[in-house]
Amino acid sequence: MASVMLVPPSRPHGRPVDAVVEELGSDVDDGLCQRVAEERLLAVGPNVMDEPPGPTWWRQVLGQFRSPLVLLLAGAIVISIVAWVLDGSPGAPLDALVIASIMIANAAIGVFQERSAETAVAQLRSMVTETATVIRDGRQHHVDTADLVPGDVLVLRAGDTVPADGRVVSAHSLSAAEAVLTGESEPVHKDPAPVDHTASLGDRTSMVFAATSITSGRGSAIVTATGMSTEVGDIAVLLGETEEPPTPLEREIGRVGRLLGIAVVVIVAVVVAVTVLVSGVESGSEAVELLLIGVSLAVAAVPEGLPAVLSLVLAMGVRRMARRNALLKRLPFAETLGSTTVICTDKTGTLTRNEMVVRRLATPSMAYEVTGSGYGPDGDVRAAATAEDGPDARNVSTEPGGTAEADGAMSALTAAVLASDASVRHDGSEWRAVGDPTEAALVAAAGKAGLDVGALATRYERVGEIPFDSHRKRMTTLNRDAHHPGRLLMVTKGAPDFVLPLCTHTSGRTMDEPAEPIDLDRWTGTIEAFADEALRTLAIAYRTVDSISLANADERDLTLLGIVGIMDPPRPHIDEAVDEAQLAGIRVIMITGDHPRTAANIARQVGIDDADRRPLTGEDLDRAGEDFGPLIDGSSVFSRVAPRHKLMLVEALQAEGDVVAMTGDGVNDAPALKAADIGIAMGVTGSDVSKGAADMILTDDNFATIVAAVEEGRSIFANIASFIRYLLSSNAGEVLTMFLGVVFATVIGLEAGEEGVIAPLAATQILWINLLTDSGPALALGIDPLDPAVMRRRPRSRQDRLIDRDMIVSIGIIA
User: What are phi and psi of 157, to 5 degrees?
Assistant: First the structure.
């Protein structure tokens, strides 16, 4: 074997297989020998992602004391202890102990919530691959994925999760779902043939990538990169370089803490100065009394219960959100949702169901609509309504007498099933696709039409096959019909551009009726009409043959049975959720790696504003350079974007002053999720990387849950403003009592006499008053029920202040 390979091959997708294999010092038939594999493992390291260690419990505890407000309370503790020592009071420093207990309770609440979120996130992890099948020493072995090295030959089958990046060596109807990397819902067909060196990630059909999954077929690939050298690793590096911004609430509470700190210093300085001018300080005991007055003023000015009440209110809000399927990792994120001005949402799996469904079927005699969702049998195949039919078009899948077959639907769907390898399976809770999702959609549509797929498998025996490949873009099967033993039915399914040129006729009402010459212009119009609806089109054709042998040359003189339109449909009620968000003043932007036409159609269906404009692409952003601000203002749909484009868009929106929520489920979404003010990952379909980068996880993958969480966040902020107004008004009253009591001590009969300066209230008395009259009512204000009108107000901008001019005036009047 060749020397140890330390650097991944350069652009392996654009080079012949033999050149890549030679550079890796491997063999496509025998693979690596075990000794070389072990040497390479020592040299390049295990095939794992570098994950930063989670915060230790003591770091989490210390993190609860970073707030300026909490540091202000810590300063009050120090002052209280100093005053207690100087005063020589008997017993314990009660003032300091009470304030410290409040700080400890606040920290305990924060740590508990963060630990709970971490536990919940760990339970959501699902993308785990433990072993891989490789060829070593000429035999197949099952090895830990962590032990894979460059040069290993992977054996790939439907259902496998790809454990490393690899150059495709062989492919037999091999397809991979790469939505986690590219955002595109359709599986990518793989082929060993090299592609252009400049091909984008989604167009590298000669490669398979770590964290993607094989949906159909079988094949092999030689590992070109492992661990952090993979495409997923590149995203992880980008993720590590992305800083997580503080939440709006954290910034605002920090500002409040700084303002209160300045206020405390100013108030204490003014009162002490006035006291010295009014009463004078003639002895050390009077100086101690003056210090105690300063401590009392500091205690009166600082709302000791604010951190604890704030944490309790946020914790209860987080619990309510969890009951509504939104899991938050940290308490302040609850309020961030209420401040959101823009939601940047992925399309696949977020706005759509991430499953392929047949929506249209056009046969030579009639057009059909297919109802229902998912891969289950619920739904119908209905003749499309015309102006003469009105809205009550007949349901051809349930009519007696075989009307659907007479109209051609059954013939087209039967052929589609015969040219598919996928199946659908009920796992007890829902129907799932087994194999290629597009082929599973055809099988599901046949079931909706009333076809017994199991009976078809019994009737028709597949005796030959030409598998799909990226050059032919079609698949052909040869089937023996048990009802007509002397007839072999050849069925071709594929992209219309590659099937229609092979067709000379269109079918009659059944396969046995005389065919008519094909009208290519008519079918081209049908395909364009389907494309305008963002439907992916497949052509279904057939021919009867006598020979069992099957070659490419036999794909000729075909008879077209029909054109099928397939799509990844929007989630149920997603349009209502988008509409509610927009009524709340929140801009919804779709950012997807999918085709512009598909993105625009889905945007129209879900009701995103400006959906009628041409979607902007990643190329448009690259051409605009750094000055693409005007582009963002003018469009709400971005397609064909790479991970870096998503990050650029989030940062550009933040620079404009927006509070950005970013949703996503794929590895490619992770950097933008981390950079956003609130990153939202899908809990069911989301990757581990996206869940780790996000601030919130949707346990039901429902966009409507985001809107519900925004409503909770806005209510939380309104309640926080209410109890802060109450707390500061109460404390301002105490400060005025202390200030006026010292200044007008003679008037109200607080003569110091020989004991020195006398304050109206001691620090302990103020704390006792605060404990009885502040925390309880403030907590009650903090858990007020939702205001139904909260989603009809504009979002709070970054320039809006928690303590604004109106609140200051209100506090002054109440005090």
Answer: -135, 160
This prediction's pTM: 0.65
Q: Mind listing the pLDDT tens digit for each residue in 510-554?
A: 676 767 899 999 999 999 888 878 788 999 999 998 888 887 778
Please report the DSSP string for 377-431 in residue order.
S-S-EEEPP-TTTTT---BTTT-TTSHHHHTTHHHHHHHHHHT---EEEE-SSSE
For residue 588, CA distances in Å to 77, 585, 605, 696 come to: 47, 10, 14, 18
Bridge partners of 134?
141, 154
Q: How many CA atoms lie within 13 A of 403 on its CB side?
A: 12
Tell me if 523 sits within 8 A of 500, measured CB to CB. Answer: yes
- Catalytically annotated residue among 152, 160, 346, 436: 346
The most distant pair of C-alpha atoms in the chain lies apart, rounded to whole Å, by 124
Q: Return d(Cα 391, Cα 527) in angstroms, integer.
A: 24
Q: Cβ distance 183 to 200 under 8 Å? A: no
Backbone torsions φ then ψ of 629, nearest 5 degrees: -55, -45
Q: Is 622 a catalytic residue?
A: no
Instruction: Judge whether residue 771 has pLDDT over 80.
Output: no
pLDDT tens-digit map of 91-121:
677 667 777 776 776 677 666 655 554 554 4
Q: Is 522 helix (H, G, I), strand (E, B) or coil?
A: helix
Q: What would the 3-class secondary structure string for 239-298 be? A: HHHCCCCCCHHHHHHHHHHHHHHHHHHHHHHHHHHHHHHHHCCCCHHHHHHHHHHHHHHH
How many other C-beta atoms can be found within 10 angstroms of the C-beta atom of residue 724?
23
- Picking from 622, 624, 789, the residue whose alpha carbon sits closest to that of residue 714 is 789
Structure tokens at 214: 């094989």
CA angle 427, 431, 432 (to 5 degrees): 85
CA 305 to chain CA centroid, nearest Å:
36
Query: How distant, in Å, are the alpha carbons of 404, 417, 424 from that of 441?
Result: 19, 10, 9
401: phi then psi, degrees, rounded to nearest 5: 90, 10
pLDDT at 733: 84
Whether pLDDT at 196 is above 60: yes
Taking the C-alpha atoms of residue 366 and residue 357, their distance in angstroms, rounded to an integer, is 20
* Cα pseudo-dihedral 47, 690, 324, 604, rounded to 10: -140
pLDDT of res. 422: 86
For residue 20, pLDDT over 50 is answered with yes
